[in-house]
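Example record used in the benchmark description.
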Amino acid sequence: LYHLTTDHMTSTSFEHRAAKLLIDPYHLIGNHSGTWFIMRIDWYVLSIIQFSLRNYRVDDEGDGSTFRNMNFFTVGITALYQSDDDVKKNIEENSGNKNE
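Model output (structure tokens):
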């Protein structure tokens, strides 16, 4: 499941553009280690994603189900005051349909 998830995130069929970062998965960054990605959510939002290598048990008395943490470190960039003309221009530029 881990490999399916990481392969899907970097595939062209995934909704958002993502790339796997060349960081040693066992190297601690802060208190996080694992596989790292950078993802463009939209034109103004980027996320750095940490996908843990460690499995965690749901509970000790359950059916043995496990999960892995996936942490998103997200930043958004936008103008404080954006005019409707700026928004329209950005939409046209991103869609490839410029009305000139």
